[in-house]
Amino acid sequence: MRYKIIILAVVLFIVAGCIGRVPLYAPRRHDTKQHKVAKSTSDCLGCHDINERVDHNKEDDCFRCHKLCQEC
């Protein structure tokens, strides 16, 4: 019985980690002034044209995947 609880806890921990995870190969935002002050997706769309991207929509949240990179 104890092993089932431990296995369930580990599985839930892994699932929770995968849901909140930033995609591994998503490009990071460079540490520039424009990227630091961007607070909404519309700020991103002012400079970046996503019409040619088939995997992005205008309704997507840019900040979910594209995190600010301090070392870039």
Describe this structure in words.
With 72 residues, this protein is mostly helical. The protein has one domain. It is built from four helices and no strands. The protein has helices at residues 2-19, 33-37, 41-45, 62-65. The longest helix has 18 residues, at 2-19. The mean pLDDT is 84.
Number of DSSP strands?
A: 0
Low-confidence stretches: none
Terminal Cα span: 48 Å
From the spread of the alpha carbons, the general shape counts as elongated
Structural class: mainly alpha
Secondary-structure blueprint:
Blueprint: H1 2-19, H2 33-37, H3 41-45, H4 62-65
Which key phrases capture this entry?
elongated; mainly alpha; about 70 residues; 4 helices
Would you summarize the structure shown here?
With 72 residues, the chain is mostly helical.
